[in-house]
Amino acid sequence: MTDGSPQSVDDPSATERELRQRLDILATFNEVVADVNEAIVDAGGRAGIERQVCERLVQTDELRFAWVGVVDETTGDVEPTAWAGVEDGYLDEIDVSVSAARPEGNGPVGRAVRSNAVQATQSIADEPAFGPFREPALERGYRSAASVPLVYDDARYGVLTMYAEHERAFTAELAEPISNLGHAVAHGIDTHVRRERERELERREQAFSRIVEDIEEYALFRLDASGRVESWNRGAAAIKGYDTEEILGKHIETFYTDEDAEDGLPERLLDRARTEGRAENEGWRVRADGTRFWASVTITALTDDAGEVIGFAKVTRDMTERKRREQQLDAVFNSTFQYIGLVEPDGTVLRVNDAALDLVDADRDDVVGLQAWETPWWHGDDERIADLRAALGRASEGAFVRYEVEIERENTDRPVVIDFSVTPVRDGDGDGDGTVSLLVLEGHDITARKERERELRREQERLEFVNRIIRHNLLNGLNVVGARADIVEDFVDDAGLTHLETIQGRVREMTELVGTMRTFMKVIVERESHEFRPRRIDEAVDHGVDSLRRESDAASVAVGRLPDISVVADDLLDEVVEHLLKNAVQHNDKPNPTVEVEVGAGDDVVELRVSDNGPGVPDEEKHRIVDQRIEDLSNPGNGFGLFLVREIVESYGGTVEIEDNDRGGATFVITLPRA
Predict the structure, then answer these.
(1) Distance separating alpha carbons of residues 245 and 229, to the nearest angstrom
(2) b (16+ CB within 10 A) / e for 309-324
(3) How many of the other CB atoms lie within 10 Å of CB of 517?
């Protein structure tokens, strides 16, 4: 246990870890937005989008659980509809509301719905409003949370809530990306809700005849040879807003904007229909009341027996809603910082988002229609082009392809490192058996991450150098001093014996500290590449108990039954047990310290419990001790052992917790994965 003294030493590794966590979460949000874009084009419906979003969010190491709920407008209760991650009955245990008058309505979910804005809880343990949900959340490892309302065009589709396994995961700079995520999800749901409404309308309209269906859906009317209106149907009146009496005899330029009419577009379409038999066009048209709508127009020439044009049949369909959805899709497509493109299976570029164009300072019109390997992102490197063509070939056959590639960036000598993928999109009903009709190209800029990885490798090399100095120079020097002090003992009189004993004691302390430092350096240097193996838990306990009994005659150690089981660890497991036992004695205020060691085994984990009869640990100190950082340590000898225990245990994939015991002391609980 530590005294909690403030620490002034910065911890670059902790800072880097926090930055990496934020960047991972930010990247996840952007990736989910991109996934939702794809889901809008090809997804099974609202439930599929909600489930896909939750599953995608918890794929990051930082997010532990995510769920989507809808609000019962009558009761104000929030009912879960989709979730993913570590749930463990959490949604069954809690009741969530949007009512401010109820305690269940003042968590991030209720506040997000009422404020229509992102709500974050940086510390679930410390947030008063999290009261009803705190214990269930903490039991499942949730440490911070954020909720974002799913609202699109004033339509509320629920609320998305996510939980992270550490505190302060949802910082202020993530508010906008989280909001963008909520908007994208709501847009995707809105698109499918509208699509279902359209399908329902189609099912109802199937009861009517095809003629009636066409008349009501389309404006169908006839023009004379000069382009003036000769007939008018109900669909035309509904779409364009003119009664039959007021429109007959009017030229079709009446329906066009002033700009298009002055540009001669109506006459050009008539001329094309005269010469080619048919003319098609999409564009803005004008209703009788002056409002505009996006129309799909087909003009077909009508001829007599001699082939002379005697008039035209014109079909107009109101495509305003589709146009609006396309504009919204374009907005979402271009709202991400990731690089996205759509290509035909043969490699022909169909669409490219703004971020990808900005990367190489290209114009959209200059790349759409080209083969992907002919675009600025790939030219100039035969090997890179060959890799792309091979990837597109595999994807066109149905495979998902992903690899890293370097892209030359405009106005800089340093290339961008891209995490590049090609995803095939199939026709059909989504069962995966359809023909590949589209390829989605996606790139994530990982240049900064690769640079960080290089920096981390360089830092590990520096640490290894320091470790060698400690191991060879410092430790060897201490051994020489200790040996010479033992020799001098025969030549020192009683007056100098006290000073000699002080020297010998300090040498032993420094030697032990150097050993601890070596262990800590080993944890840091070898963490990324080290492979763990099965270790017998009883052997580690026996080693620690023997060490404590040799060093402390006053301490009493009781060991319960040790099961014959192994955990995923390495040789440093002995250090963990030894430090826990020493800690139980060193911080014990009793004249006869007592330590109890127990081991329990579950299906997946093994629990090691070390209990003492000391003064215990106040509740407010437990969290600080378990989660302390380097800067929290006043010096390497004060609390360093427990810090080292946590670092080693977490490297094994385990956890460290502190509990009270029935004798007033503290119990350190170490949970390790079972081998």
Answers:
(1) 11
(2) eebbbbbbbbbeeebe
(3) 19
d(CA 510, CA 477): 11
Helix (H) or strand (E) holding 506: helix 494-526
H helix intervals, 373-474: 382-396, 447-468
Query: Tokens representing 597?
Result: 């060691």
Strand order in the sheet with 144-152: 78-85, 63-71, 155-164, 144-152, 119-121
Ranges assigned E (strand) in 236-348: 278-286, 292-303, 309-318, 339-343
- Mean pLDDT within 229-238: 87
Query: Which long-range CB contacts under 8 A does 406-412 form with residues at least 24 apart?
Result: 407/359, 407/360, 407/377, 407/378, 407/443, 408/360, 408/380, 409/359, 409/360, 410/359, 410/360, 410/361, 411/361
Instruction: Retrieve residue 119's tokens.
Output: 């709500």
Q: Tell me the CB-side half-sphere exposure of residue 417, using CA atoms within 13 A.
A: 9
Given its phi and psi angles, is residue 336 left (phi above 0), alpha (psi -120 to 50 degrees) or beta? beta
Intra-chain end-to-end CA distance of the chain, in Å: 29
Cβ 27 vs Cβ 444: under 8 Å: yes
Cβ atoms 540, 576 nearer than 8 A:
yes
The rounded distance, in Å, linking the Cα atoms of 526 and 451 is 20
Rounded distance between C-alpha atoms, residue 260 and residue 356, angstroms: 33
Cβ atoms of residues 619 and 666 within 8 Å: no
Contact 547, 578 (CB under 8 A): yes
Tokens of 653: 């994939």
pLDDT score at 637: 47
Closest by CA position to 594, among listed 666, 645, 535: 666
Q: Name the DSSP letter for residue 471.
A: I
Question: Does residue 210 register a pLDDT over 80?
Answer: no
Q: How far is CA 461 from CA 15, 17, 455, 514, 519, in A?
A: 19, 18, 10, 19, 16
3-class SS shares of the chain: helix, strand, coil, % to 5: 45, 25, 30
347 or 433: which carries more pLDDT confidence?
347
Residue whose C-alpha is closest to residue 573's, from 535, 607, 609, 602: 535
- Residue 273's nearest CA partner among 247, 239, 310 is 310
How far lies 269's CA from each of 259, 277, 348, in Å?
A: 15, 11, 29
Distance CA(294)–CA(612), nearest Å, equals 78
Sort strands 401-407 and 436-445 into parallel, antiparallel or unpaired.
unpaired
Q: Is 80 exceeded by the pLDDT of residue 246? A: yes
- Whether the full predicted model's pTM is greater than 0.70, yes or no, is no
Residue 409 per-residue DSSP state? P
Phi then psi for residue 278, to 5 deg, are -160, 145
The answer to whether the CB of 49 falls within 8 A of the CB of 17 is: no
Q: What is the pLDDT of residues 248-297, one digit of tens each?
A: 999 999 999 999 999 999 999 999 999 999 999 999 999 999 999 999 99
Cβ–Cβ < 8 Å for 221, 236: yes
| E strand or H helix at 1 | none
- The pLDDT tens digits for 53-95 are 899 889 877 899 999 999 998 999 999 999 999 999 999 999 9
Using alpha carbons only, what angle is made at residue 242 by residues 240 and 245, rounded to the nearest 5 degrees? Answer: 150
Give 604: exposed, middle or buried? Use CB within 10 Å, 0-12, 13-18, 19+: exposed
- The bridge status of strand 594-601 relative to strand 556-559 is parallel
Going by their DSSP bridges, the two strands 566-569 and 533-536 should be labelled as antiparallel
What type of residue is 646? R
Q: Which two tokens stand for residue 342?
A: 């759509």
Q: What is the pLDDT of residue 1?
A: 34
